[in-house]
Specification:
TIM Barrel
Length: 359
């Protein structure tokens, strides 16, 4: 039988149907990607024929001028000492250690609600879906699945406000926090609606809301503040395309909110970090209600295992989770950092491809 197309494989995996092999892919920090490409003498995505969906976001109109966020960083100059400003207005100081930067939050010194209200979060209401639709059509025409990231919510809000100030806002002046959350939520909802209208197979969402042991804040706070907003994003997309898959990312141990994520319509969980959560136990608890994407540790297996141990980890996990019948896309639990041996990356893909079922 002919191998599945990437779209057929993705949909079968997400729907817990038999696959010819589990989908698999990896992401890399820039330094790792450059060295791996030189080692392979090829682009890693092409060389390993990774199962990566494609899509495009809503795009600003021609002659669009973004806000001048430099006014929120008067003590810094763009380009000097590695200082940059991202699309949300957050400053980044590069201290010379690979891709890691220090966040400089533009609203870190805000003392009034008016300052939060006046902050120019980019509004995508007038953005075009032309590129989004074209990317979906191109993906489907080439046998690939169409997937687009609709945005963060909590992460964007705390990055703009500052981590500790935002958490304090949630507890002491929640209207400040909710104002920022609503602006990002509105953008995410418009992205999700446009993706559903364009026929996308999956929308990607998520926020890092946990550390290694537990949630960063009480689960009930997440349920009060974040859950209904994500629910509104998913409901808006599903009202247009009921079968659209929803991929959700959070590092760390989010066991406390897995029931809630399934309730609001999450179908694929990433990255199921094995240092924090046991994918076998989660599968036993939730069965076919939640597919996994990830599961191969970037804090453990990728940097520290031997190639043989990497192969054994992949094969044992696939067997334990019955990957032949879907529900498991294999990938590192985060982008791969410079310390990962290239032999382990090759061993990962070779082990994944050894799982071919021959259907």
């Amino acid at each position: 039988m002919c191998p599945m197309t990437k779209r057929e494989r993705f949909l079968a995996c997400a729907g817990f149907e038999q696959v010819d092999r589990p989908p698999r892919y990896a992401g890399f920090v820039p330094d790792m990607r450059e060295r791996l490409a030189a080692h392979l003498n090829a682009d890693p995505e092409t060389y390993f024929d990774m199962d990566i969906g494609h899509g495009a976001p809503l795009m600003p109109p021609e002659n669009y001028e973004p806000p001048d966020y430099s006014v929120y960083h008067p003590e810094y100059t763009v380009g000097q000492y590695g200082f940059t400003i991202d699309e949300n207005g957050c400053g980044h100081l590069n201290h010379g250690f690979y891709h890691f930067t220090e966040y400089i939050s533009p609203l870190r010194h805000a003392t009034s609600l008016a300052e939060i209200e006046d902050y120019p979060v980019i509004d995508n209401a007038d953005f075009s879906d032309r590129a989004m639709r074209a990317a979906c059509e191109h993906a489907h025409a080439h046998g690939n699945f169409a997937n687009v990231f609709v945005g963060h919510m909590y992460e964007n809000a705390w990055q703009v406000r500052g981590y500790e100030p935002f958490l304090l806002d949630l507890l002491t002046q929640r209207d400040w926090a909710e104002l920022l959350l609503d602006r990002f939520c509105d953008n995410n909802r418009r992205m999700a609606i446009a993706a559903a209208q364009a026929g996308y197979d999956c929308i990607a969402t998520g926020d890092d809301v946990a550390n290694q042991q537990a949630m960063m804040f009480h689960p009930d706070l997440w349920r009060d503040v974040m859950k209904p907003r994500w629910a509104s994003v998913i409901e808006a997309a599903r009202s247009i395309k009921p079968d659209i898959h929803v991929w959700y990312h959070s590092d760390g141990n989010i066991m406390d909110i897995l029931d809630d994520l399934i309730e609001i319509g999450i179908t694929i969980l990433n990255p199921v970090q094995p240092e924090c959560m046991d994918p076998i136990q989660i599968r036993k608890r939730y069965g076919k209600r939640l597919a996994f994407d990830g599961c191969i540790g970037t804090q453990s297996t990728f940097p520290f295992a031997t190639p043989h141990a990497m192969s054994r980890t992949v094969l044992e996990l696939a067997e334990q989770l019955d990957a032949d019948h879907g529900g498991l896309a294999l990938s590192p639990t985060h982008v791969l950092e410079p310390e990962v041996p290239m032999a382990n990356i090759v061993a990962f893909f070779e082990a994944c491809d050894a799982l071919q079922t021959g259907i």
